[in-house]
């Protein structure tokens, strides 16, 4: 059973498998829940293996997933292009993955700082002998050394270079199950949870799709009400829209599309702006996005997901509600605080009165 926790190796300490942040010195103090994986402050050695968990702890995190806690090679069957920068990667294995659980994927020698890159991924579909991952290709942005520079995605660059038939390493550990779904429920699959607000940006839609599949297509008459706040740079970037549109025909689900970026208005000012105007410009009106008319008038916002739109559309804080969050690190930073940490009280959700037990970070 010790393999459930002691999974670090010499090439697997670039990122923490729980919070997925870089294992830089001092991170252990910031993330005590996963400190055993982090490098000791000022040190460079691999973290010491944790003691074997008790039988009770192992049972608490029991998972039906067929993947072991060790790296397992799985064959890439095919790659299907979805849109201009996103594809569906189909791998040849039955998973039996619990709802709201993810896999860890390893790309050898692909991390920008050296070593193996490890990231969490949530399958968007599973069939007999196959499962699908939705992968977005992150290209280099800006010039190296400049403030706005963003390197290409470590995992996406690796995956998009592969041919069908290549083996890719996966594993599943106990910490990858974010919130349990009770398949024997009566009315509400997430026990005691009657309403869910989902906050997702880009491919952060993947774990939401997994949960929505169970709620609306699981065949158990789940009565959970869900609102999805979905952020994308443009209307054409909206992923799996056909599934979302189908679910919106049910009375218990609606999507509020947010189109734009967090930087809208920061450097764009009108020539007539008064001296009192500050960045972000409070007088700047964003242009109408291309294909904007395709979205229902009451189901769209021309802005980044923020405290104001969450307050407007989300279910209010209560013991019977949860907020699911998934996106890039900047999304967590502004909405709820980084993965692997308690809810940040200075974040949007913290200021709106939600507590740590009501927020699930994927």
Notable traits:
alpha/beta; disordered N terminus; 8 helices; 362 residues; 7-stranded antiparallel sheet; 13 strands; Elongation Factor Tu (Ef-tu), domain 3; 2 domains; single chain; 6-stranded parallel sheet; Rossmann fold
Give your account of this protein's structure.
- The radius of gyration is 21 Å and the shape is globular.
- The protein is of the alpha/beta class.
- It has helices at residues 27-30, 55-60, 154-159, 205-217, 241-247, 307-313, 329-335, 348-351; strands at 72-81, 86-91, 103-107, 117-121, 125-127, 130-136, 167-171, 195-201, 225-232, 253-259, 300-301, 321-326, 359-361.
- It has two domains: 72-176, Translation factors (Elongation Factor Tu (Ef-tu), domain 3); 195-361, Rossmann fold (3-Layer(aba) Sandwich).
- 15% of the residues lie in helices and 20% in strands.
Short description:
This protein has about 350 residues and is α/β, with parallel strands linked by helices. About 15% of the residues lie in helices and about 20% in strands. One of its GO terms (cellular component) is mitochondrion.
Helix tally?
Answer: 8
Provide the helix percentage. Answer: 10-25%
Q: Please state roughly what percent of the residues sit in beta strands, choosing from under 5%, 5-15%, 15-25%, 25-35%, 35-45% or over 45%.
A: 15-25%
Average pLDDT metric: 81
Count of individual beta strands: 13
Characterize the overall form: globular
Residue runs with pLDDT of under 50 for 5 or more positions: 1-14, 39-62
Q: How far apart are the termini?
A: 25 Å
Tell me the CATH topology of the largest domain: Rossmann fold
**Measured on Cα atoms, how large is the radius of gyration?**
21 Å
Q: How are strands sequenced across the largest beta sheet?
A: 4-3-7-1-2-6-5
Broad structural category:
alpha/beta
Give the SSE order as H and E letters.
Answer: HHEEEEEEHEEHEHEEHEHHE
CATH architecture grouping of the largest domain: 3-Layer(aba) Sandwich
Main location: mitochondrion
Catalytic activity: 2 Fe(III)-[cytochrome b5] + NADH = 2 Fe(II)-[cytochrome b5] + NAD(+) + H(+)
Keywords: FAD, Flavoprotein, Mitochondrion, NAD, Oxidoreductase
GO molecular function: cytochrome-b5 reductase activity, acting on NADH
